[in-house]
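W.,

You were right to be curious about this one. When I first looked at the sequence I had no strong expectations either way, so I just let the prediction run and decided to look at it fresh. Below is the sequence, 356 residues in total, followed by the output.
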Amino acid sequence: MLVRTIVQVLIFLLAAGCFLGESSVRTFRSPVVPFHELFVLADTIRLDSSILIGQISFLDVSDTGELLVTDDVARSVHLFSATGTHARSYLVPECLPDDMDFVPWSSRFIGDGRILTMQIGGPSALFDIEGDCLVGKRAWMMLVKSFCAREDSIFTHKTYKVGQATTSVFSSVLEAVVDIPIDPPRLVSLNTDHLGQQGRSIDCFDDGAYYVYTESMDAIPVWSSSTRIQYRPDFFEWRPEDLPRASPAERSRLQMEYPSTIAIFALDRSTRMILSLDLDSTWHLDDGNTSVPKGISVASNTGKFPGRSTISPVWPMAAGNGFFYVVGENESLPHGEVGNPVLLKYQFIPPGDTND
């Protein structure tokens, strides 16, 4: 079982002193290339309008392309097929019957046909794929803001508390297994203010879990090693100091003076994709798009291709199986009705080897 392996690896790493900071790794440039060199629009998915969605606040994709939609407006979680047909909904009151205030923060496939949904601040509900409640937890982990699953283990990333930089690992039935020490954030106040994209500060790959902080230039593996390579996107800027004590408006202004890393996605089981906002104005796209520039960087965990970055015209909400997904405009239905948002599906094109 993976849980036992995790404990054995943790003991070995602690004995060998192998938890390393970012300064111990090799850094390579990740050049900015045109968006179309890395991604191409592959499909538009129309979600079944028999279930109306208030807002897609979080989206997850299974290994077979099924779509798990979290709707924080309607406080609901829905499963759709890869082509958008509604399959079923997951009813949290069946797991937490006296918690009528549950607002789902993120919901993910965690393997073996199970679905886990959580509210930031503690409550969580675990279902089988058919919608039957398996476990309900009123106080799972109070500081958890993101989670992902690898085989039979659930890895969590928490809002940082001074002196407590760990990834808490749980079993497939939400039982605590082990706390793994990780690098703390360099800028504590910044990360306290800025949680990043909802539920997206950690993701799982074949070689383990990777996480990001707001000031990160690249994702950090839970199990660091001296062979680790990180990539520096061309749009990345080093933030020299933490946010000072100031008014919320002033802190918000200062936070936007440098790029912020807000999410990590598993494009596939060995390819990480990092999303950044608040880029310098020189990175605005010259295509009539007035939205803020979004920086994407991609890298192979196994060295299959060199790191590359791009400025994206769209905002990724989920990724998997070599694709990422974007929430589009609401579909117009016959008779003037408004349907659900469409999902735009972009295929990743791995870059060829170069001298960079």
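Here's what jumped out at me. The chain has a mean pLDDT of 89. And, maybe more interesting for your project: The helical segments are 2-16, 188-193, 248-255.

Coffee later to discuss?

I.
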